Structure formats: C-alpha cells, structure tokens
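Researcher: Here's a chain I'd like modeled. Treat it as a single chain, no partners, no ligands.
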Amino acid sequence: MLKRRMFCAAALAALTVAAGGQAIAAGAVTFHFYGAEDCPPCMAFKRDHLAGVKAEGGALGFEVEDNVIRRTRDVPTPGVYGERDPILRLAAPQLEFVYPPIFVVSQAGRIVSVHGHDWRAALDSARQLAGQSG
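Model: Modeled as a single isolated chain. Structure tokens:
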C-alpha cells in the first residue's frame, strides 16, 4: 500500500520542477480530475460524469482538466501527470488516501480545495469560486 509519507516526499521533489509550469490567467478556476485507466471508480467518473462537469464548467466559466494515466501504481512517480503533476503533489499532504480518483480545485494556479474521491464536493467548490471570480 502506498504510504502517505512516500507520496509527500514525491510531492516535494515535484516542487523543484513546478516553477516551469504553464502560466494561468489571474483568477482562473480549474476543476482537476486525476485518475488512472486501471481504476474502476476513475473510469466510472470519466464515463458517467466528466462530460457534464465540463459542460457546467463551460457555462459557469471554470476549466476542467482530465488527467488520466495508464496505471494506478505509477501515481507516486514524480512527473507522471505531466504539466499538471505539481498540483497533485501540492495537494498530497491534504489527502488521507492518495489513490485516484482525486479531485482538486485551484484558482490562479493555487490550490483552493482538495476533495479526495468526492467529485461532487469539488464541483460545488468550482461552482462557488467561478461565481465569485466572474
């Protein structure tokens, strides 16, 4: 089982490369979904809810990022999620379980809320922030 300490150590390593990340518009709200193809709950969210979350994001003015890798066992590897990996690594200390699916909301590149497996709570947070920033 993946230990929280191991994941946090990987998060600290990822911070060293975070400075080169993508520039984000001031105030931009983003709903982040981190998953894996071999994770049944991840694929169920992707199949059953992701399109609706994206549609709502488009209507309310928040971005939705779909970050899916092939294997759950690769999650602790720094950089596995590419450009969006640093957001997950910064969220890691706030997570009790670090297995996907993981839902995080950021604003202007800063983590605002971490919701673990609760996508509905993440969606509520993104809705609220998008309403405040618009």
